[in-house]
Automatic annotation (TrEMBL):
Its EC number is 3.6.5.2. The lineage of its organism: Eukaryota, Metazoa, Chordata, Craniata, Vertebrata. This is small monomeric GTPase. The keyword Methyltransferase does not apply. It catalyses: GTP + H2O = GDP + phosphate + H(+). Keywords: GTP-binding, Hydrolase, Nucleotide-binding. One of its GO terms (molecular function) is GTP binding. NCBIfam families: small_GTP. It is an enzyme of class 3 (hydrolase). Belongs to the small GTPase superfamily. Ras family. It comes from Alosa alosa (allis shad). It comes from the Eukaryota. Pfam families: Ras.
Length: 217
């Protein structure tokens, strides 16, 4: 269970505090889908192959459009072979400003886990029902082992009001970067909406969502 796992806090980040100008990002998904690979790719731009089994929270300052943004990234461990309400802790949901749910395109069971986790989060009162979520199909380089089509992933994301990406953490940094930057943008829009301020991009997104044409990558 998550409560019994070691949580490493790096760079003096406090897992219970919200970032001032940035975002707390929670990575979820089944085991072996590449959550750590995505995190390490974003932090270091590298793919190192093997990552171990330690649950960690990383702090990372990124420069986006000349502004410094602080990311706190919780790389979770998937605790069980089946999803139960306990598999995502209240603490994780209260902490997170946005969630990245990762499955492997070669592993149908991992796609099912993401579907169940999206449902659990949407039903949870610990996180806002409109909290930004991105669904990521990882291991796109393994086309010959594909078990979940892009279309299926995209359609599910659309139905769950989530953004969608298919990437390969092994092959490239760019796709991984786009995932984190998109989530940051969604988090900032969601904050602006709560304050009653919304930019042009936010208006386009809202209008698109209302007319069923929400942008899905
Ligand atoms: N081919 C390929 N392998 C990948 C990719 N991303 C991760 N892997 C491999 O998949 C395995 C699992 O990656 P991890 O990042 O440890 O997966 P995880 O989801 O953090 O796994 P847990 O720690 O068990 O929760 C490792 O052997 C990685 O090298 C990818 O995009 N393509």
């Amino acid at each position: 269970m998550i409560g019994q796992m070691v949580v490493q806090v790096k760079s003096n980040s406090n897992p219970c505090s919200k970032a001032m100008d940035g975002a707390n990002v929670l990575l979820l998904g089944a085991e072996n889908v590449g959550k750590s690979a995505l995190t390490v790719r974003f932090l270091t731009r590298r793919f190192i192959g093997e990552y171990g089994d330690i649950e960690s929270i990383y702090s990372h300052i990124d420069k986006i459009d000349g502004r410094e943004i602080s990311f706190n990234i919780w790389d979770s461990l998937y605790p069980q072979n089946c999803v139960t309400p306990e598999s995502i802790s209240d603490k994780q949901l209260q902490w997170a400003d946005g969630v990245i749910l990762v499955y492997s395109i070669c592993d149908r069971a991992s796609f099912d886990v993401v579907r169940q986790q999206v449902q659990l989060i949407r039903q949870s009162r610990k996180m806002s029902a409109s909290a930004p979520m991105i669904i990521v199909g990882n291991k796109r380089d393994l086309q010959h082992q594909r078990a979940v089509s892009s279309e299926e992933g995209r359609l599910f994301a659309l139905s769950a009001d989530c953004s969608f990406f298919e990437i390969s953490a092994a092959e490239a940094y760019h796709g991984v970067m786009l995932v984190f930057h998109e989530l940051l943008e969604l988090i900032q829009e969601s904050r602006a909406l709560k304050k009653g301020v919304i930019g042009i991009k936010g208006i386009v997104r809202t209008v698109s969502a209302v007319f069923g044409k929400k942008r899905v990558e």
